[in-house]
């Protein structure tokens, strides 16, 4: 009798973990189950077959979980209790969301992640509302600049709510997709200025905002931690983005040490992770004052400036400079260019044109 092949360790998907009622569901596969299949003649073929079966089972379980979640929501809604996530609706100078507060006052949008009972963790509802909120902000003629913060005084955002993680990682067709994570202005290609006011703990996916907002202020009591690897998840997206803002060494240390490594506010300032520290009770006043200064500038000039600087991280110095020159020449044909020069020579405040967006390919990209 030929020697039996020792069982292989379970092949676990490193990106998607399934949680249901607090239980981490794990998939395990028996190599012997597939060993007798005629079309598998080699160890490599066997491994490929196992991986395919693992992927099939994984997606099947995710979709099944989501069907149950959606069914439960329908039952709750029909009972008149917590209904399916409400569609945002205009309400004067505010827009109403279920998990986000959005208010505009004198050109400044205040955006608040509003799940303080869960330390502002992002659930499936907030994950869907964030792209819609950024779209509304980008199209809002009354909003020139935004300040984003967290509700309460304990946390800014503690990342993804693990109970909803499977649903958040799937696109509308039910397949895992990076496009399902669109939480920040940069991920939604919003070129209006955005200030991030870190009012407490930031963990995991909350680091997306630190990495991808334009200006980051933090309370002196703020802390930063990336626990992904401590719960068996890969830390990739937010830490890659952070490595563009600060030295790679501290990013790697935080990502690999997991929950056992916390960066204090003062350390974050020294590393360039944040740009300024404030006393906890002065944070929002400082953010609002900075936003009030920014909103006086040309909206279209700021949008083109922001995109030119962020794009340089993607294209490199030479190409970014060429693209920026093209954009500058195009901007020089706009109302705001002429108005800025005119207002300066006439020693008066400029009257900028309302922001109407910028073309995605105006640099010839």
Automatic annotation (TrEMBL):
Domain of life according to the entry: Bacteria
GO molecular function: catalytic activity
InterPro entries assigned to the protein according to its UniProt record, in alphabetical order: ClpP/crotonase-like_dom_sf, Enoyl-CoA_hydra/iso, Enoyl-CoA_hydra_C, Enoyl-CoA_Hydratase/Isomerase
GO biological processes: isoprenoid catabolic process
Gene3D superfamilies recorded: 2-enoyl-CoA Hydratase, Chain A, domain 1 (3.90.226.10), Lyase 2-enoyl-coa Hydratase, Chain A, domain 2 (1.10.12.10)
Pfam families xref list: ECH_1
Family membership: Belongs to the enoyl-CoA hydratase/isomerase family.
PANTHER family: ENOYL-COA HYDRATASE, POLYKETIDE BIOSYNTHESIS ENOYL-COA HYDRATASE PKSH-RELATED
Protein name: Enoyl-CoA hydratase/isomerase
Provenance organism: Rhizorhabdus wittichii (strain DSM 6014 / CCUG 31198 / JCM 15750 / NBRC 105917 / EY 4224 / RW1)
Taxon lineage: Bacteria, Pseudomonadati, Pseudomonadota, Alphaproteobacteria, Sphingomonadales
């Amino acid at each position: 009798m030929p020697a039996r092949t020792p069982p292989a360790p379970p092949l676990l998907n490193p990106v998607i973990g399934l949680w249901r009622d607090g239980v981490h569901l794990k998939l395990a596969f028996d190599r012997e189950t597939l060993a007798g299949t005629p079309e598998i003649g080699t160890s490599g073929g066997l491994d490929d077959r196992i991986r395919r079966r693992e992927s099939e089972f994984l997606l099947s379980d995710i979709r099944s979980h989501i069907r149950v979640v959606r069914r439960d929501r329908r039952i709750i809604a029909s009972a008149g209790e917590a209904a399916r996530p409400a569609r945002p609706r205009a309400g004067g100078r505010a827009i109403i969301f279920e998990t986000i507060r959005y208010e505009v006052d004198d050109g400044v949008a205040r955006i608040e992640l509003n799940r303080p009972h869960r330390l502002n963790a992002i659930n499936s509802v907030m994950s869907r509302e964030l792209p819609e909120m950024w779209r509304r902000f980008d199209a809002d003629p009354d909003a020139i600049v935004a300040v984003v913060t967290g509700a309460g005084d304990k946390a800014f955002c503690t990342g993804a709510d693990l109970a909803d993680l499977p649903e958040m990682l799937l696109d509308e067709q039910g397949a895992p997709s990076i496009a399902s994570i669109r939480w920040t202005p940069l991920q939604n290609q919003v070129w209006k200025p955005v200030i991030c006011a870190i009012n407490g703990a930031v963990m995991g996916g909350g680091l997306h905002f630190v990495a991808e907002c334009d200006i980051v202020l933090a309370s002196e009591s703020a802390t930063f931690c990336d626990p992904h690897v401590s719960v068996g998840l890969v830390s990739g997206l937010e830490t890659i983005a952070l490595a563009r803002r600060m030295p790679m060494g501290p990013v790697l240390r935080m990502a690999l040490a997991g929950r056992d490594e916390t960066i204090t506010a003062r350390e974050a300032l020294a590393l360039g992770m944040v740009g300024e520290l404030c006393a906890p009770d002065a944070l929002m006043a400082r953010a609002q004052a900075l936003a009030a200064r920014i909103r006086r500038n040309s909206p279209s000039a700021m949008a083109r400036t922001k995109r030119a600087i962020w794009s340089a991280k993607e294209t490199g110095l030479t190409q970014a400079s060429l693209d920026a020159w093209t954009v500058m020449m195009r901007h020089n044909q706009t109302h705001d260019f002429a108005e800025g020069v005119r207002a300066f020579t006439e020693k008066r405040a400029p009257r900028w044109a309302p922001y109407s967006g910028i073309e995605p390919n105006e640099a010839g990209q």
